[in-house]
Amino acid sequence: KETRAVSNTACWIEITDTLRKSSDFSLDFKHENANDAIVPEMTKVKNLAFLVYYATCKMLLAIYLEKFEEALVFSKMFLKYLEGAAGQITVVYQCYLESLAYLGLIRRGKNKSSYLGKLKKNQKNLATWASIAPQNFQFFSIIIEAEIVSLTENSSYAITLYEQAIQSALTYENLPNQAIGYELFGLYFLKKNGLE
């Protein structure tokens, strides 16, 4: 386990250093390689761990920039190199980030029926992971469930779920999740009251 942790840490450091130093690093999301010179190089040497971490970082960035379709491109890239993520926490993050991308697209009126089915499948996986390691994954499961319920008219249940997600982040002292919970709850409140 220690070797795996050191290996994962070394991989994150390698990714961060490489991306920071690369003059070719870009936020261009036009295709899988996104003009980043490092991807073809890592593909050649079959550094699958690097590629899944890379795809996870790009998904996170795309979600942050509200480029939801692009986030799904990197989700597919992640799944292409899934073997490199075996037994790693990034598998859960991919599922969570992909769910946020689907929710973003649904809110923009795109392909609701198709994305809702995929969301529910992801939610089932997140709930399973949350039951195994609530300190790591409970927030993800509850906040995605809150977001799914917020798409319906059941506002009292959605509010309860948002509050539970925030409480989970507080309980496990996870400040970033707490911030995301408050933000999503606030956006729900604004939309519900026609203030967005």
Tell me what the structure shows.
The chain has nine helices and no strands. The model is unreliable at 1-9 and 22-35 (pLDDT under 50). It is mainly alpha-helical.
* Arithmetic mean of pLDDT: 81
In this structure, how is the largest beta sheet organized?
none
Task: Please mark out the parts with pLDDT under 50 across 5 or more consecutive residues, or reply none.
Answer: 1-9, 22-35
How many individual helices?
Answer: 9
List keywords for this structure.
196 residues, mainly alpha
Summarize the structure.
With 196 residues, this protein is an all-alpha fold. The protein has helices at 2-21, 38-44, 48-64, 68-80, 90-107, 112-132, 134-150, 155-171, 175-192.
Secondary structure topology:
Layout: H1 2-21, H2 38-44, H3 48-64, H4 68-80, H5 90-107, H6 112-132, H7 134-150, H8 155-171, H9 175-192
